[in-house]
Amino acid sequence: MPVKWIKIGFLLAYLACDHAAMAERFGSLGLSAGLLLYIGLYSVLALCLGAAAFIPRTSVRVIVALILVSASIALQSYEWATRHVLDYNAFETMLASRGDTGDALTQHGAVLWKSLPVALLLLIGLLLPPKGWRLPGWAALGAPLAGLGLLSVMLYIRGGEGARALPAPFVPLAHASIMGAVSLTEAGQARQPVTLQPTAPRGDGDIVLLVDESVAGNYLDINNANGVRSGLKETRAGLAIHNYGIAASVTNCSPGSNKTLRFGGTRETYRLAARIWPSVWAYARKAGYRTVYMDGQRTGGELQNLATPEERAEIEDFIQLPNVPVRDRDQELARLVRARIDNGVREFIYVNKVGGHFPVADKYPDPLLRYQPVLDRGKMADITDMGPVHANFDGNADYWRRYRNAYRNTMLWNAGAFFDRLLAGLDPKRAVILYTSDHGQDLHERGQEGKATHCINEPAPEEGAVPLVVIDSPDSPRLRWNDSVATNHNGMSHFRVFPTILTLMGYDPAALKANYGPTLLDPDADPMTFTINYFAALGRAPTWRKVAPEKLSNPPLTDQNEAPAR
CA–CA distance from 295 to each of 81, 224, 249, 349 (Å)? Predict the structure, then answer.
């Protein structure tokens, strides 16, 4: 058989491996003009892929093949693992989470291995000598570049959507091309300095912002009579714990929520704030606070949650826990935060906890195995926050029941025991503490299909439902928390946190309001919405989803066969 047909056979076999996604796309479009456009675009890109296989110069063909194969692995491993389309917003989120790559390989290795044989078909089809047909070099190389350009323009016009079930190699490359073009248009925009002048801070001591990871507000006892002990419900001598109830996060994925908690902004301005407005670190330093960042999730100085080297330079003490087991990192954070509170230095401390991010099977010690049955333990003790499931997870109801119980046990440890250690004997004059989570969790309480808990394109409202608590002195509170809790319980969002922190630092809330919106103290109604497309690039506006506390799913009581405490 001539080599040209062997090459084409490998390429067709490669394209056929995506038949399930193609069938789904056909079904969703039905007999419509959209179906014809999809078939036309798919055919053009398939022909462009075929042209790349006939690039005459071997060195050029090898380089092109490696690029296309790498893009194919990236897209198929992502979509097959998450069961969601890699649109532009998901692409940006994936890049923002690239620090999770090691854990992703540990968790999703089976999916990655599944994508490699498929990519091998493409690699062989591209690398076999182009005998039998000869295309001019400019045409063979120009065709895939033209196809990439066509797809990039189409995706840009459509706000990054519309690439589902197209030939896999072109999609990530098109998203990367768009991102590069967007970055060039934004180049040269310097971050603005702090121009406001602070007065004296509201009270003495530190300001601590605890950002938990994947803590569902509706699973804690402060918001649900049948919730897990959080350590924040009981009375603690000398402390006033102000529970704002269920709040709305910025978005349903960690990078966006954390970025906005650090740079502020309203629902209309958060993207501008993230790009060029001053950081919370800059405001803190101008107000006379030492800046401290504690990260329980990463090691080796690695930055996460859209942080940049420029932002890192504004942090005076950057603390990670490379030598502490993942299970014990929140306990160590509690110890470290308490030590900083007690050191007599006025500091702003931002903490990213380990919390309840998947996998949750090994994030609590044996004595806290109170909710049963649970997931199998002992397999993922070294994984911080990537990969929701084992390779053989099929998303059935029994798995989710065991997952929810393991999650509850994790909350007993990373919330309840954490606050026991942090707050025991705390002098409230030394610090005011704000506590929230980056996003909530969809733990499939309604029995819906799927394997993800958050960061999906069509999220359940539970993904945006987080706790929001302020801990202060009962006798000399920094701000009028009692009045605001009475007004704003179950009605706030992350967007209120940044201006509240700046107010505590001594900045005028009236001057802040134009850019950053109202604080937790203001009676202004909050929409209580979170965005499902945080990046919302390419001229698209963010899409918002409502968090209605009374409509959130209740954690199923039928999950629990609670065992006695040991």
Answer: 27, 29, 20, 11
